[in-house]
Amino acid sequence: MKLSLCISLAILMLSIGNLAAQELITNPSAGKVLYQIHCLRCHGDQGAGKGPDVHSLIVPPRNFHTPESTAKSEYELRSIIIWGLVFSDMHKWGYRLTSQEIRNVISYIRQLAPYQPRI
Ligand code: HEC
Known about the structure:
Elements lengths: L1 H23 L3 H16 L23 H4 L3 H10 L15 H14 L7
The structure holds heme C (HEC).
């Protein structure tokens, strides 16, 4: 009885550890593919907000290289991508991309414009 309880607990702990590890793994190459399909037309290939569709937008896309953008936490970027920004063409992607895909696309944006906290 005790042994089976120990084994069950060990399996549970191992699987929880595994889930947590999977959550943290990001894949910028997969993020790049998604970015090119969904985001590039507005944000541009370098993330400077100069994509081919910008001329049709009233509110310009943000340039990911500005200090305001590079200082944003992953949580802030994530919220914007999930919920979008009102009164702009930055629509919500939470229902179109999975949690992992959003993580991957953020890791690609961070590759283009690395995180720089403001001091
Ligand atoms: C149709 C054009 C368009 C597309 C497509 C688009 N965006 Fe945007 N995005 C915008 C605009 C416009 C803003 C700025 C809105 C504002 O200033 O209120 C913005 C803002 C953002 C911001 C906020 C950046 C900051 O520093 O505050 C993030 C992050 C972002 N977009 C990510 C993405 C991602 C990821 C995708 C693809 C999954 C994407 N966007 C697709 C137009 C677009």
